[in-house]
Amino acid sequence: MNRSKKEKREFDVVVIGGGASGMMAAGIAAKRGRKVAIVEKNKKLGKKLDITGGGRCNITNAEHDVHKFLAKYSDAQQFLYSPFSQFSAEDTFSFFENRKLPIVVEARKRAFPKTQNAPDVTNALYKMLIENNVNIFTDSAIIEMKKDGEKITEAHSKDAIFSGKSFIIATGGNSHPETGSTGDVFKWLKKLGHTIKESSPDIVPLSTSDSWGHKLSGTSLSFMKVTFYANGKRAFSETGKILFTHFGVSGPLILNCARKVADLFHIGKVTATIDAFPDTEIGTLEKNILKLIDANKNKDFFNVFKEIAPKGTSVHIFPLLGIDASKKSNSITKEERSKVAHILKALPLTITGLMGFDRAVVSDGGVILSEIDTKTMRSRLYKNLYLTGDILHIQRPSGGYSLQLCWTTGYVAGLNS
Ligand SMILES: Cc1cc2nc3c(=O)[nH]c(=O)nc-3n(C[C@H](O)[C@H](O)[C@H](O)COP(=O)(O)OP(=O)(O)OC[C@H]3O[C@@H](n4cnc5c(N)ncnc54)[C@H](O)[C@@H]3O)c2cc1C
């Protein structure tokens, strides 16, 4: 369709991308009396938001000390002081609770809607858009932006031209592209002169080559200590929950280690060990094993091992011991006992890589912060362009910190656009 046939629509604020940060920005701008359009390429708003937190939406983190909260954002900490002074995690609680969406706090201060249903969060935001007369355009991908000097003038979809006094780009990063965040917008931002730190999967599971782990797919184990090695040299350890999958390992501990593990691949081969008894010294564990063997002398050792190994894992870990499954407990040697203790303290994994964008919670990379005004989220290159959410290069862990970034940056852009 050529330009003359495109329908022209005029607004004060045009928000491109109807995810978490775009909906927040559009609603806040409209509450200020601005004539707002939100343009989303999917048939519905908030497709990614609907699947967050395993469908429960870890909406923020209930760490109300802003300094401690911001410490989670590594290099972006300083940049975020101003936006968080305008909209903090505490404000997220009041914002949603005032919209009849009570929030409950779980382990590690992770906050969820009481309904435990992520689409309720999307609906709360959607309602704000409707109540404030935001013009919602779904099934409308923006394919091009026009500029005039230091101003953005138009955003073009296949069949419409959206002109605006201000533009907010809230098109997300690269993770789970099936939700719409395909990262193609980075190409036009580059064309507009912005510097984009190349994107890579982050908060992402790891792939392993060990069949014993693959066979445990679906098993999750709490309080495991994982130690990572590069070329056999110890790099770092973390303790937490692991989820075994058919391709490797996941779960909060692993997801939050992924970035550091990616760095280890620059050194060389990456391996890991899982300590299933991080609070028990190896000597004590050996003694406990001996006691159990003594109490079950005539049993097959495999049945005794079942009582020692973490629940649900014995069948797949046992082959690592190299002990005949039918061997009686009373014929287990000292060396074999020691092997059992050593394996349980260091279950071996070979890490083959990080999984891709399709399994990543977020992507690392995006527009660099030195090109954004911290007080307003305005581009330093264009007077009327604002950037929010995952499109920004801000590293953070899992636990509600990504969505809080969206609420904060969306709010600030909505307030200033
Ligand atoms: C499986 C999963 C679980 C997660 N769970 C949590 C969690 O529990 N807690 C947490 O804090 N974070 C979580 N996250 C991260 C969180 O979802 C993101 O940080 C957040 O959704 C990013 O919001 P956003 O507004 O930047 O972009 P998105 O939510 O990705 O929205 C961007 C929108 O822009 C649209 N778009 C893209 N290009 C165009 C275009 N050219 N024209 C028009 N529209 C366009 C897309 O279709 C999309 O709807 C999770 C992520 C995933 C993948």
Structure notes:
Helices cover 31% and strands 26% of the residues. It is an alpha+beta fold and 417 residues long. Strand 4 (103-105) and strand 5 (110-113) form a beta hairpin. The longest helix has 16 residues, at 401-416. The chain is elongated and about 85 Å long. Bound molecules: flavin-adenine dinucleotide (FAD). Residues 16-22, 39-42, 47-49, 51-53, 57-58, 141-142, 170-172, 175-176, 179-181, 185, 361-362, 389-391, 400-403, 406 line the site of flavin-adenine dinucleotide.
Q: How do the helices and strands line up, and which of them pair or pack?
A:
Layout: E1 7-16, H1 20-31, E2 36-39, E3 60-61, H2 66-70, H3 77-86, H4 89-98, E4 103-105, E5 110-113, H5 118-131, E6 135-137, E7 142-148, E8 151-157, E9 160-169, H6 185-191, E10 196-202, E11 206-208, H7 211-215, E12 220-230, E13 233-244, E14 248-250, H8 252-264, E15 270-275, H9 282-295, H10 301-308, H11 314-317, H12 334-345, E16 347-354, E17 362-367, E18 385-387, H13 401-416
Parallel strand pairs: 1-2, 1-9, 2-6, 9-18
Antiparallel strand pairs: 3-5, 4-5, 7-8, 8-9, 10-17, 11-14, 11-16, 12-13, 12-15, 13-14, 15-16
Question: pLDDT under 50 segments (min length 5)?
Answer: none
Distance between the termini: 30 Å
Mean pLDDT equals 96
Bound molecules: flavin-adenine dinucleotide
Percent strand: 25-35%
Number-wise, the strands total 18
Q: Report the C-alpha radius of gyration, rounded.
A: 26 Å
